[in-house]
Structure formats: structure tokens, C-alpha cells
Amino acid sequence: MAFALTPEREKHAHALLEKYPEKRAALLPLLWLCQRQNGYISSEVIAYAADFLELETAEVKGVVTFYTMFFQEPVGEHVIWVCRTLACDLRGGKAVQDHLERRLGVVPGQTTKDGKFTLLKAECLASCGSAPMVQIDDDYHENLTAEKLDRILDEVAAGPAWVEEPVNKASDKSVKEEG
Amino acid sequence: MSQSSASPKILTARYHLEDSHTLAVAEKAGAYEMARKALTTMSPEQIRDEVKKGNVRGRGGAGFPAGVKWGFLNPKPGQEVYLVVNGDESEPGTFKDRTIMELDPHRLVEGIIISCYAIGAHKAFVYIRGELRLGQLRVDAAIEEARAKGYVGPKPFGVDHPVDIVVHSGAGAYICGEETGLLNSLEGRRGEPRIKPPFPAVEGAFGMPTIVNNLETIATIPGLIERGGEAFAALGRVPGDGGTRLYGVSGHVARPGVYEAPAGITLRELIEDFGGGLLDPSKTMKAVIPGGSSTPVLRPDRQVNAPDPGHPLHAYHGKSEIDVPMAVDLYRALGTMLGTCCATVIDSSVNMVEATRNLMHFYQHESCGQCTPCREGTGWILDLLNLITGGKATERELDLLVEVPNNMMGNTICAFADGTAMPLLGMIRQFPDEFREAIRRGEPLGVRHDETTRPLFNGAKA
């Protein structure tokens, strides 16, 4: 089935074009808008974006496949990225991954049977001073302990799926509180 | 965010305020006063002059003098000039620019307004890595608040120099921190670096003359204007590196975090005075990666050898490698790089071969794949390290581990290959015995990096 942005999101998409001197430059933000609605970048999304920006679908696909944050297949309601680069690993990155694997019953790259969580490994997420950490959807969770991680997972599981978040979620938890 | 009381707070002056990211709070604490002063009382040339005098070495890692970079602009008539702010912050171990975006985005916006005026740009793009959603939202909100006040828009502070600012989100790719990879990503393309020349100052974003500066560099500008270039430069402890800057310290220290201090403090000061020393004092400090994973590792137990009075490091002869001031040129002489000034501290519980494998996994994952030596080389390096840590390697593999990076350096479009090869060769040079021992043992290392910290994760008190 063909993909189309909701009218509200489509307004955002048109506003994007005003921001750049060239139409094509709106491609990354447009793909973000689409992924936030559709959950991943399907071939229908690629066709839509190509049509919207007057590009070849191959050009759009080339861009999608370059960036790790554009999902090329469906993911769970929430995506957990666990940072495993050295600074996090020195502070327990592997322990975080082990804990998540045990609790969720999946290994990185897999989605839980109930479709709630996809677990992925991440390269350095610029959170080294507050390691170990995970990114869940749009939010960083830092200075993790097993107990804190369990609490966060409970909260996230009880909340809305990532695609149900408003277009510009005021993701405005105080950084200081987490630190 | 704790601070040593003696160090001047410029960039971080407003970090501790509640809701420091909002205009109401930031403006009450002085935000936009310097933009007003610069635009209404100074000429663009005067500002450029002050920035040059301020000796601001680019804060992104290469350490290029910001004032000199601005001087490369020479737009042809009718050409638009762009300012592009690099907030990609992806170098492993680096987490400083984030604090500006999240805790004082108005300092960034103010720096952008002044910089646009100084270089003749009317449009700035702030490229922020896709993962830093909170930072993106806060910078975006700050721009809108400034727009509502008229500070961003057709006539900032009544001056006929329109300024518009756009936040552009990345989508997960380390190479987009390389300035021409970033420009391609900004233009809606794969983030593959471009062949230089032409340099961005001649042909950058959308084919126009463009200045790409690190985000902290731009946020430094209001504080520099406030003090004047010479006084700002004098805050630095070594000639050639001016001002204060953000330092990060992570890994096995008691108080990891971001701290502001003068340019030119030593790693020992950063680790002990700011970072609180080792997390587990029963261990010893084995290694420090001084400024992001691409900067070759230093050994606290190794002494500077510079008996020749003409050597740039002669003043530090016989001292530990971590007692040399963190300055662009001194660090180059030391065989490493200053990088982003975000240090990763590694204690004696860690096996350096395994640590090297971790970092080389990063580079293998992040090579953009354009150039064969880098695409294939990073894969070879990881394969070799997997053999060594897996206990299946011989001396031949260790030789190859030196040969492969030597064939990558200088043979690619961008500095990524060098940024892979240098820290790898640095690890082998600094810890040769550990590599030989791994081969001699001939069985899997079976070690992990969190021996010191795993109990904390599981609930033990620090």
C-alpha cells in the first residue's frame, strides 16, 4: 500500500523545503518524519520521499542505507541501543547488554516476541561521562545500575509506542536530574 | 556538573542555573549582551581580528586556529556565505558539545549570530547527530525564542544583517563529523567525505563558500568578545592555545564528567583535580586516551625523553607523559594529538589488546566505504585483532597488524584512515608486550573491560 504522511506531518514536510536552498537537502529530515510515523523506512516510504523531492528512488535508498538510525525493516514499539564502545565498556556496557539479554530474552538485532522491544548495539553515543547508558527511542538513560535499568524498562513498556509520540515531543526531562 | 573553584567559568557559567536552557534564565544571566555589543558597536573585521588574537584552536579535534580559518573566505560577488556548526560529536570518548546544546543553547545561538555577522553569512546550519534528540530540541527551541525576540531574523539588534539558523539532524554515522562528509549529509546525500581541494571555504555547502566550525568553538565566541581577544588568549596556559575550553574525563575515574578549565592544563590535573583520581585506588593508572579514540594512547608510567634543549618538549624531559600541558603543538611533539580534550582513563584491570579490539570494531563499523584502503583495511585490522584475542594468531598476524595501517595512512580521501591507523599503531608501540603475550598464550583472552565497575552496576556502593 502506498505511503503518505498525515496532513499534519505533510505540513511539516512542506515547511522543511523553506529551510534549505536546495530541495534535496530536506531528504534527511523528511525521512525522519516518515520514520516517526511509519516506524521504519519501507520501500513505500522511499517511493514517497523520492516523489516528494523529485529524486530517483535509488538515490533515496542509497541515503537510507548509509545511516544506522534509519530502520530498513520493522522494529519493536521501542528500540533500545546499548552503547558498547570503550568508554561505556569500561563502566559496565557489557553488563548492561547481558542484563538486557536476560530480561528480554533476545540478543542484539532481535525483537521480543510481544513486539515491545528491539535490542541493538550502538557505537559511542557521546555519553561517556555518564556511562554505562542506553538510548531508548529518543531518550538517553545514563549512569545505569541493574535496578535503575529495570525501572526504566517498566516505565517505557507501560508508555506509548515510539510512533505514537507527537511530531515534536518536548523530550525535556532535566539533564541534571539524570546526572 | 562539579567544577574546581579556581578555574574560570565562561562556557559553563550558566550550566548550574535552573532551566538554564531557556531564554528567560540565560538572558538574565547575560546572554545576547555580547551579540548586541558586537553587532551594534563593532565591524565584522574588528570581530575577526579579536577572534584571531584570541588564539582559539578549533575545539573539534584538529586544533586549527579558528581566526585563520575564517580568513580563508573570499567569496565572489553574488555568492552566499554559509556558517555550518558541527555538532556531530561522535568521536568515542567525547561528550562535551552535548552539554552546551542541552544546558546553554543560547550561548551557541549568540555565538552563531556574532559569527555570521563576522564572516558575512546570513544563514547558519547546526548539524547535530541524530541520537542527540534532547540537544536538537533545545537548540531548536532556543532559536525560536531568539527569533521571537528579533535576535534571529531580518534585523538582529536593529542591524541590517539578516541571520537565519536551521538545525539539521544526522541519522547515525560517525563520518558525518568530517566536515565534507557533514556537508554531503546536510545536502541530503550519503555522508561520504569529498576530495579536497576545493576546501569548504571556497566551495562548501550547496557549492557556496562555507565555514565549518565545531560547536564549542562557536559557543566560545561570546566569552571571547566579552574579554577581548588578547585577554581571552591570556587565559590559556601555553602560548598558541587561548582561552578556556571544555574537558571531558571518562572511564575509570571517581568523578567522570565535563569540566571547564584553561587551555593547557595537564592530563594529570584533569584526571586528579577534576576527575577525582582513579575510581578504584587499589588499581594503577595504566593508560590514558587523551582526546578521543583517534588520539594515540599515553602511558602515565612512561617519561618524556627530550634531552635536547631545542626539543619542544625539553621543559618536560623526565616527567610523565601525562604531565605535559594539553596543547595542540606540544601534544603533536609527544606523538599523539590533542583531539577533543576528552580523556578516557584506563586502569590496570584492562587488557590493552582487548581495548584495542573494541576501538577497532568502531572504526570497522564506521568506515564509509568510499576508499578501498580504509574499507578493506579496517576490516583486516578487526579480523587480525579477533585472531589475536581469540588465541589463534602468530607473529605474522602481529606484523600484518602494523603493515595494514601503514598502508592506509595518506592513501584515502579523508583523515578517517589516519585516525584509525595512528591510535592502533600507538597501542602496539606503547603496549608491545601485551600483544606478544596474547600471541604467546595461544588461547582466547576471555577478558572484559568492566572488572572494576561491574559490581557498581549490580548495586554495590562506589
Overall domain count of chain B: 3
CATH level-two architecture of the largest domain in chain B: 3-Layer(aba) Sandwich
Number of helices of chain A: 8
CATH uppermost class of the largest domain in chain B = Alpha Beta
Topology:
The complex is a heterodimer of chains A (179) and B (462).
Chain A: H1 7-17, H2 27-38, H3 43-53, H4 57-64, E1 78-83, H5 86-89, H6 93-104, E2 117-122, E3 134-136, E4 139-141, H7 146-158, H8 175-178
Parallel strand pairs in A: 1-2
Antiparallel strand pairs in A: 1-3, 3-4
Chain B: H1 23-28, H2 33-41, H3 44-53, H4 66-71, E1 82-87, H5 97-103, H6 105-119, E2 123-128, H7 133-149, E3 164-169, H8 179-186, E4 210-214, H9 215-227, H10 229-235, E5 244-251, E6 257-262, H11 267-274, E7 285-289, H12 328-333, E8 342-347, H13 352-366, H14 372-389, H15 395-408, H16 416-430, H17 432-441, H18 454-457
Helix pairs in contact in B: 2-6, 3-6, 3-10, 5-6, 5-7, 6-7, 6-9, 9-10, 13-14, 13-16, 14-15, 15-16
Word description of this protein:
The complex is a heterodimer of chains A (179) and B (462). With 179 residues, chain A is of the alpha+beta class. Chain A folds into 2 domains: 7-64, Arc Repressor Mutant, subunit A (Orthogonal Bundle), CATH 1.10.10; 78-161, 3-Layer(aba) Sandwich (Glutaredoxin). Chain A is built from 8 helices and 4 strands. Chain A has a 4-stranded mixed beta sheet, with helices on one face. In chain A, a hairpin with a 2-residue loop joins β3 (134-136) and β4. Chain A is elongated, with a radius of gyration of 18 Å. In chain A, 42% of the residues are buried. With 462 residues, chain B is α/β, with parallel strands linked by helices. Chain B has 3 domains: 23-235, 3-Layer(aba) Sandwich (Rossmann fold), CATH 3.40.50; 244-347, Ubiquitin-like (UB roll); 352-441, NADH-ubiquinone oxidoreductase 51kDa subunit, iron-sulphur binding domain (de novo design (two linked rop proteins), Up-down Bundle). In chain B, a hairpin with a 5-residue loop joins β5 (244-251) and β6 (257-262). Chain B contains 18 helices and 8 strands. At the A-B interface, α2, α5 and α6 of A face α5, α7, β3, β5 and β8 of B.
